[in-house]
Amino acid sequence: MLTANLLPMARRRASAREDRAVLWMFVTVTLALTLAAATATIHMTARSTTAEATARELTTVQTELERLGTLVQESRSRAQKSESLLAAARAIADHPDWSLLLNLMGKLRGDQVDLARIALGYKKPDANAKPAAKAQRGYWVRITGQAVDQAGVARFAVRLEESGLFDKVTLTESKKNPTAALVDFQIDAVIEDQSPGGVP
Amino acid sequence: MISPRYGMTGIEISPRSVRLAQLRFEGAKAMLHALAEFDRLDENSPLEAEAARIAGVMRRRGFAGVRLAVCLGPEQVMATEMELPPLSSGAPVRQLAAAELGRAYKTDPNALEVAVWEIPVPARQAGAATCMAAACSYETSNTIIAAFDQAGLDVRRVEPRETALARACLPRLAGEGAITLVVSLRLRGSRVLGVQKNTIVLDRALEGGDLHRLYREAAEVSGVESGDVASVLSELLGHAGVLQLDEATRAAVRASLDRFGSGLIEEIQTACAYVGRRFGGREVARMLITSDGPEAEPIADLLGAVTSLDASACALADIAEVPSTLRPMAVRGGFLAAAGAGFARRKGDMC
After folding, report:
1. What is the pLDDT, as a whole number, of residue B272?
2. Measured between beta carbons, which residues in chain A are less than 8 angstroms from residue B134?
3. Which residue of B has its CA nearest to A1?
């Protein structure tokens, strides 16, 4: 019995209570610190996980964007090629069959008119015209030639107008050629395009 | 790396001096942490004044914490051997012991804090056990507590000097079942303790063993002041000294020391015979000599040679590692009880 503490029991109990209080305080503080550290760690881990996930997502989105950008670029170049092809096809496919016009001209001229030149081209839209009219397209046809007399020129113009092919026929010039005893003329006609796409 | 734990500061206040010792523990290893000794203001100086000085010394000398274990002097302890119901019987043994002590010391048993332990000897009557009881009055302990409280120190244990000393000697005790005699040489009030395992089974005064007799005789033959005799002995025994003793003085002091040791032989033999008779022929296996001065080793040699016992001095260095800075003070002896008082055996005893 080598421990004989003769301190009054009340004092010993008070000391033991004090020790317990200190111990509990220590335990509580340690626990609180541990919990705080654990919470902080979890929070940090969660934050870093979220950040990592966001970074990963961002990278994925960036990759996807790059992929889509490349696709768009490829699609664009394909579309350009297609447009070029389409334009070429249109240029070929939409070209009017002017041989019909020439045949018709041949029939309408009769015996008293010689055709020197037939020129045609796309009609320019009228700058003062309404937008709807602007969209309307057509062709101009300029016919030059010689006739035996002024009456022959007039008859030829009338026949052109009566053919129904031209929307407008104008005798723009008619003068006597003194050297050949013939009448030189120039007739301007217009073929309006009535189709929705403007294609003749 | 193991962080050190500090034991309580053990304090022994004798009529002439105050001794403080504190151990620290690193794992199972005990090390002396701090040590201090100073003279009291006077023999009857109030405890409050000494407590204030102790607090100051503790601050200056690097003692850790404010928890104290105070050794009680013989005049503060009531102790006796008595027949009581066994502790395991469930009887109110402590109250019975208090009543017995109250009757013996003519004091109020309700004002006593009592410690009781059984002594392993055959009881004189059936259903009874031979017990040792030690008590301290609340008046005494409360005076000590109040004085140290006032100085900002926290008294956690007050105990008889003998139990503190025996606890300090624990590492040097003989094996289980064997009895070790612990001879405590003091200026006044030398005692011999019988310790078995962890129980004090014998506590008796050592007649003719008070050191003041040795010091007085040594002072007479050597011509030095009696207060310097401890230093003379210390120098004589090979410890550091500045007295530059001549051979004649050395021989005279040595002869006094031998006479003092021889005077103890009869007492020791009586104690051994008593132990043999009381404990059914069980003999003393070892003898440890502790002293308030530096003379423990030569006396142990002398007693060992005469009694054929395994006798040796027991000092601070035997229970703890002593740093070189504290060694000169530690070898002077006298700190064992203070160190034992603060010798922590449980977690609650730590600072």
Report:
1. 87
2. 4, 6
3. B199
The three-state DSSP-derived secondary structure of B276-296 is HHHCCCCCEEEEEEEECCCCH
- Quote ipTM for the complex: 0.84
Please give the backbone phi and psi of residue A191, each rounded to the nearest 5 degrees, phi first.
-110, 115
Task: Give residue ranges of B with CB < 8 Å to any A CB.
Answer: 72, 77, 113-115, 117-118, 132, 134-136, 138, 141-142, 145, 154-160, 163, 166-167, 170, 195, 198-200, 345, 348
- Interval A52-56 mean pLDDT: 85
- The per-residue pLDDT for B293 is 80
**What contacts A137, CB < 8 A, 6 or more positions away?**
A122, A123, A125, A193, A198, A200
Q: Which residue of A has its CA nearest to B76?
A: A6
pLDDT tens, A74-101?
999 998 988 888 887 776 666 667 788 8
Determine, for residues B167 and A5 on separate chains, whether the beta-carbon distance falls below 8 Å: no
Q: Model confidence over A157-175: pLDDT tens digits?
A: 998 888 888 888 999 988 8
Whether A6 has its CB under 8 Å from any CB of chain B: the answer is: yes
Question: Which string of DSSP letters, residue by residue, matches B210-222?
Answer: -HHHHHHHHHHHH
Distance between CA atoms of residues B264 and A2, nearest Å: 26
Q: What is the pLDDT of residues B165-181, one digit of tens each?
A: 998 888 888 887 789 99
The dihedral formed by the CA atoms of B211, B342, B166 and A8, expressed in degrees to the nearest 10: 100
Size of interface A-B (CB pairs under 8 A): 62
What predicted TM-score, i.e. pTM, was given to this entire model? 0.67
B155 with A7: Cβ contact below 8 A: yes
| Residues 125 through 164 of chain A touching chain B, CB cutoff 8 Å | none
Which chain A residues in 22-61 lie under 8 Å from chain B, judged by CB atoms?
A: none
Helices (H), chain B: 47-60, 93-105, 138-150, 161-168, 211-222, 229-236, 247-278, 296-307, 316-319, 327-330, 336-341
pLDDT tens for A111-138 read 889 988 999 888 777 667 666 555 567 8
What are the contacts of B248-256 at 24+ separation with CB within 8 A? B249/B221, B249/B222, B249/B223, B249/B224, B252/B218, B252/B221, B252/B222, B253/B218, B253/B221, B253/B222, B253/B229, B255/B221, B256/B214, B256/B217, B256/B218, B256/B221
What is the mean pLDDT of the segment spanning B319-335?
84
Strands of the sheet containing A182-192, edge to edge, are A113-122, A138-147, A182-192, A168-177
- φ/ψ region of B185 (left if φ > 0, alpha if ψ in -120 to 50, else beta) reads beta
CA distance B64 to chain A (A): 17
Between chains, do A4 and B160 touch, taking CB under 8 Å as contact?
A: yes
Would the CB atoms of A1 and B198 count as touching at under 8 Å?
Answer: yes
